[in-house]
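Input for the complex:
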Amino acid sequence: MSTVDIATTPSGSQRSVETLVSKLRRRQVVGSRDAALETVLVLRQVVSKARFSNIDQLVAIIRSVGRRLVDAQPKEHSVGNTVRKVLHHIREEYNTASKGTAASSSKVTYTISNFVLQGQPRKQTVAPKSEAIITLKENDPDDPDSFSRALKPVLMEAIQDVLDELETVYDNVSKNAKDHIHSDEIILTIGHSRTVESFLKQAAHYRSYTVIVAETGPSYKGHEMAQSLSAAGISTFLVPDSSIYAIMSRVNKVIIGAHAILANGGMFAITGSLLAATAARVHSTPVVVCAGQFKFTPLWNLYHDFGALDFADPSSVLGFEEGSLVDNVDVLNPYYDYVGPELVDVFITNDGDHPPSSVYRLIKESYDDDDHEL
Amino acid sequence: MPPKSSSGKEKDLTDEDDVLQAVILADSFNKRFKPLTVGKPRCLLPVCNATLLDWTFESLALAGVQEIFVICRSYPELVKAAIRDSKWSKPTHGLKIVPIITSKETFTPGDAMRDIYTRGIITSDFVLVQGDLVSNVRIDEVVRLHKERRRTNKDVIMTMVVKESGTVHRTRSLGESAVFVLDAQTSECLHYESVTGYPHKKVAQIPREIFQDHPEVEVRYDLIDCGIDVCSVEVPSLFQDNFDYGDIRRDFVHGVLTSDLLMKNIHCYVLKEGYAARVADTRSYDAVSKDILARWTFPLVPDDNHPGGHSYEHLRGNKYIAKGNSVSLSRTCKVGPNTLIGAGTTVSANASIHASVIGRNCTISENVILKNVYVFDGTVVGEGSVIEESIVGENVRIGKGSRIDRGCLVGDGVVLGVNARLGPFDRVSKRKEVGGGEESDEDGDGDEDEEGEDSELEDVEALQKDVSVMIGEGSNAIVWPQGPREDDEDFDEVERYNNQRLMRLGDNCSDLGADDDDYADYDSDSDSDNESTTSMGSNAHSIASSTTSYTDPSAAIHQLQEAAANTEFQFEVQQSLERAFAEGHSVDNAAVELKTLRMASNVELRKVREAVVKAIVEKIAVREEGGAAQRAEIAKVVKRWGALIDKIGGVDAVETVEVLQYHCAQSSRLPLFGQILAALYQDDIVEEDDIRAWHITAAAKGETLKEGTTLAENVKRCWAVGAKMIEQFDEQESSEEEEEEEKPAASKGAPKKDDEDGESEEEDGSEADGDSDDDDGDDGAAPLKAAASGQTPAAPKTVAKAKEPSEEDDSDSDDSEDEDNGHDPPVSASTSKASAPATAIPAPPSATAPAKKSEEGESSEEESGDEEESGEEDESGDEEEGSEEEEEEETRAVPTPVKQPPAATVPPAATPAAPVVAPTAAAAQREDTSSEGEDEEDDDDDDEEDSDEDEEDEPGPGSTTKDSKQPPPPPPPPPGPAVPSSSTAKPPPAPKAESSEEEEESEDEDDEDEEEKTGEGTKTQTATTASVPVVPAVSTSATAQPAVPVEAKTSLDPVTESESEEDESGSGEEGDEEEESGSDDDEDEEEDEEEEDSKPTSASQPQPRDVNASKETITPVAPAAAAAKSKTSRTPSVIVSSSEPSGSGSSDVYATTSGSEEDDAEDDDDEKAEGATLSASQPKPDTLGSSVGSSRGSSTYTNETFTSRHTEDTKDTDGKSKVSSILDDIPRTTVKG
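Predicted:
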């Protein structure tokens, strides 16, 4: 946990970091994926300009940047996730590069505890890209830059992997859509999740089904969703949120997006999701959550945190011009609902389908344990 | 094209690459936060634990501003240090913050702007904000729009950001709000009027042109002024050019919008989303803090993007507790909703905190109760203290068991002893320690402000007696005095104590009597539009009543409201004139200075005139030797400076004379009145006609004044002097006219005829009018046109600045002259009459009118019985139809006598002359009454006129042609004389006219007369016959105002006249109807108007009527407005009155709107409707008042009517309509035209 003075980070990238920080603070970057993408781009810049002579310095730099970004907007979890992911990739690359023979990660003593801690080695683990063994020389006093010079191409590749994953996440999530949606089903969705949108559209190529979209007050993102779906030729109904429960008995499946997926299998999703999920539970309707892996967040206890719901301004609920009410009425306008793991049946990610109970394992695989606290 | 456009785009891009600059006025230039701002500038006061400056920076950074100039005045070192230490000055923030220390002499935002200009720091469009802004608005969007507008229109200099809110809103300052008049399409700000909460402003005046130029107008009183302006580069230079711009809104915006010279546009950007507000006072401090805690400023909320960089945890109920476990909350303490607690603060057991903001490192002891309290950093609140609705500064120690009531402000570092008791609104600050370490620092920054504070503090300390009870033992505090300061009146209206109370934390102002009622009113009224309309309707009645009760022609209402402002203004004018006198400025320069002064102070033109006349009169030295020396002295002064009177923004000689009279009556220069008047006359500043017009006004006779006062006596004395002068005029005229008769070849015939007519009239008069003779004798003085004969031409010149009106003017002048003649003749021999007509004829420069007259005169010669007036009028009519016209003339003659003020009784005499009318004296009286009633009633109620018109219309189909022929309605009674006559001789009008009304009527009549003249002029033109109305010289030739009512009757009468009996009946009906109509509500009038519009009558008739009606309506409104500013005084004004008595105004607005909407297609109709409604609502015609504006307007009228009858629209052109909106009731009105 060596903290690196901010000043050591290159000034050029410092500016871009600050820009992103203020954008995040000011909510000029919203949405998990956008925030993640911006973060990757900033990190790439930071890494490309960073000066380091060993891996620890590099990690410290990235962590300090990540900490700033996370502090700027702790509720945009994908920022932290992305930083973790990048760190994870960098370490992997470093390990493969430096010790091609003895990969530290694979050198595991097979004990039960280790098995539980580290999970199964992932099949898709990025294959070591560096065919040509790079000669790494850390802390070379003669040429302090030799290490970074040698490692940087690999690092950039690793970061590019993260970026690619983010850019293809929608396609990857929805590639199995037709397996989840069957003909003549009635699907209920809520809000406007681009993951869900592409998922449904993808399924529409193979199946004909009906989507009921709840309009999702007070943001009414459902309107956009319904418009987009019907434009894609899907038979779509837009219903008020209040009728979700009433129509639930006829719904075959609830498909919703997520803002962040927590390690316990719960998730933050747009306001109204809890209502839909609870109604679905009552009717034993399956609740399917579509989300990219970058939304997996190694946090557990957020449902105790009232503020995590990210309350927005009341203006969409109560007009500011209602002078006499403004003074006497307290309006709460949360962005998100916390939906517990017991209400979710399956997460469909770009890395396969998982039950809520296995989310923690995915998280363990995706991120290094040291990075849970940036 | 494509390449071009692309290049253009690139340009745009480069444009946008320009650094966006912002200027923060970090000084508040007022003392609302004292004593919290003792020792630090307001912009460093914490709001939710971040300084206002931080909030402002954050708001600007959000908008992508790259370069910020902070203008600081008080405690500049502190501001600089704060900026230096803040996160904003870190290079990575990309913000360039430049503190600019302005001089101590910068007392207003205007001064600061001038400073900005002289420093030349502004290179492009910039954002101007106050240093107390809290906003999450994307200002860059506003900037983009602004630049777009600039691309097409370089005159767009500013975009103000305003936020929609209700009329009642905690964040909206009642003490300092404004009415915005916006173009609904472009959101251009057409008019700005600031509104003070106390005295509660109820009337907003909107220039009439606005409604003409913009089809859809929004009048909004529901906007929060966010204090964000996107300005163009030239804005600072405008401040530089106008040294008197102080406040950005009240002076600059208002000045720019009302200026005739600048031709600049200002737009508004109405925020639909986002939040922006200023912390301008303690009340808004409270409101903004609560808005922040309620997350209206999202994402600028404590737990997200706290400008101070603190991080807070957001808990259920909008509780914000600093993160990091530095806050120690006792297990038994209660932290209520909407509370923020800073880092390091300790809250002890059983303490209760509700809706409060606690700073960092504070200590809240056991059993403390805090409600709506703002506690700054490091303060300790002792056990068991109770604090409500107060602001407690930094490092304050509050002793055990203290109680601080609502509205208290506790300055930094104060120590309150045990059991201190602060009453409501107490302000305490730390006693100044001599040579104290901290103090010395502050002294280092010391500026005048501080010195001012010091002196204030000393004053305060002098008052400290038994306050130890209040502040407890061992306190270092001093208690500031409450209540208004002695020099309260010296302050700007906004800054006065009672108004400030509206901006005070915790003050519900329940004791501000009437105002509170108003608030209650609009609380309830704001519910629905329907309600508001109805309330306005009720208000309409109340307004009418209020108008009746008001007696002083010179805008008494405004004087009440703005007495202080006026005195200040008078003083300023005096000063500037003294300077001009002393330094020998040119008249033009002095005039420019006065104009700017007037714009800055927003004062009526009349006030300026008063001030100027006063200054000039006082400038004249009183010579003991008297006689020639005195005269020379006067001539010198008048010659040098007299021209100034007309250069200050309007020519209205009648008003000038009146002003002169009243001033002389009040000053020691009383004996000089005659001489000064003569001197003015010599210098062509005042024409003969003006003097006549003035002479017959009620004001000139002092009738409006209380009998017996010295003022009244003096006024009367002046009037007598004027009478003498007019006598002289008459004598001269008689002699000169004879000579002149020969001059105009074309007119020769006419004068003869006139003479004949006059003779005949004389005969008639002698027969029937004993009274008339007497009156004439009285008036005899007035009719001194003699002098005018030479100068009459001059009068038209002055009047006819607009060339178009020349004809009208001529006719008018003729009319007036004729009228005079008419008066004169009875007494004087035929020669005198002859002379009078002669003068009249020569007077019209344009040959058309005289020629017509001559023709008419010839035709009418036969008519023996007709008076001159009637004859002339008849003449006009005669051209077309001789016989009928004669009859008509007869009928007219009847009304004319009535109208002629001198002989109210005379009319009966005249009636005999007119065969048709004659039947019975009663009938004559009726007619008289009707005619008079028309005049008077018109004055009183335009409705009557309307009704008359309607009636006329009904019979009308046949009459249309006749009407056209008869263009000159019976000449309105000479205003001045008419009044007395009306009062005395008019029993019939009496029913309508109340005693109070009579006075008003007199005034009104004057106006009407003027109007009538114009109307006549127009009519004559339309008819192509130049009728010389008998109207006495009420109005100068320049001011031609149509007399609608008269016309209507006459027109009707003629129609009916063809059937002799019908006339009588018609007249009687008219009278009755008039009375009825008078009683009728405005609505009826409106309906009537509408009916008229819709009526099938030939175009010619309705138009004249409409014109008249509109004009009438307009004029009456103006007086009611009372506020009529100099320009507007004459110009017709639509008054939309807000709550109170002004109600009629409000109804007007509605009426206008409704009418306009209905008539959208036809502009004419709209105008008519407006006029009608206006007239209906407000019976009072203007006082003689303004010359220029009205004259222009009238002239245009005539022209238009002349050229195209259909376009009557123009009537409003120059006039300003005052739309007073019920501010409270109508948060937003949309007027579609």
